[in-house]
Amino acid sequence: MARRALEASSSLSSRLLFSSTIAPLSKPNPSPLHDLIRHVQTLAYEEIQASPDKPFNRTAFVFHGLLGSGRNWRTFSRSLASELQKRSPENEWRMVLVDLRNHGRSAEIKGFEPPHNISNAAKDVANLVKSQNWAWPDVVIGHSMGGKVALDFVNSCAHGDYGQSVVLPKQLWVLDSVPGDVNSDYGSDEVEKVLHTLKGLPSPLTSRKWVVDHMLSLGFSKALSEWIGSNLKKLGETVTWSFDLDAAIDMFTSYRETNYWPLLEHPPKGLEIAVVQAENSDRWQPNILQKLEALSKKGQISHEEGKVSFHVLPNAGHWVHVDNRKGLLEIMTPNFLS
């Protein structure tokens, strides 16, 4: 988690816009990987490509987890875009790192109506696609809570909930996220304790150091405490959260209660759902792993249905993109190319 916080604070060359019609304040020097951040009426997002001057012909959306933001996935997304370009130069992939409602830069954007749940978070993404007049993504990637947002997005695409123009993604990646309801005995109990603790902190918060020291005094690990501190931003003489805490708590409740097993049991025609379990993650019950293994053995995509694949990422805890980035790239890259 400490490395994840370090990733999140890394600098990048980017353009920052507050709507799709306002020109950037300044033009940065081009970087080896092209990053573009925009604030739009629906959601804030960042685009990453391996070649800034090459038009993209493939798109992948990336959804972060609870209390996170798209920036947590910059390093991995850059690596993935670069690796894909090396192996398949004829294709230029665009990675769109979305800040989900109430998180990251999207927390600063007004107009997200309750209920703050997984379904509405997915609908926000569909609204983003429509508002920017984009083609629908080829691949959707979601980590933790973002995995369920990705599942809901694809499920809604398959059922025509976003309109007739929708094109179903070819692949859906669910990274260390349980597809069904989440048992508090498996991973979510610590999250609940963190949310309860943050809810009880005084307002205003004096400094990042005070928050980190306070979390440590309550028995939370140094890595977790520092990651929590990395989600604070300066506000005058005090600091405040880069997420809407009350709304995030609502989203966590929705994450625990939503169930997408029917989608995995009967994936839409032409879709592959790839589920990645982190080997050292505490979020998986044995019966869930058995069910995923059984679904993955059903076979290839048929004329009637898509397929499910199941992967175990070795030497990794819940923060898959930080704990074993190379291993995750080795799992995902060949599947992207296929």
UniProtKB/TrEMBL annotation:
The UniProt record lists the AB hydrolase-1 domain at 63-327
Cite the InterPro entries for this sequence: AB_hydrolase_1, AB_hydrolase_fold, Serine_prot/Carboxylest_S33
**Which terms are listed as keywords in the entry?**
Hydrolase
Q: Which domain of life is it from?
A: Eukaryota
The family database entries (Pfam families) matched by this protein are listed as:
Abhydrolase_6
The protein's GO terms of the molecular function aspect are:
hydrolase activity
The answer on whether this UniProt entry bears the keyword Hydrolase reads yes
* Family listed: Belongs to the peptidase S33 family.
This one is known as Alpha/beta-Hydrolases superfamily protein
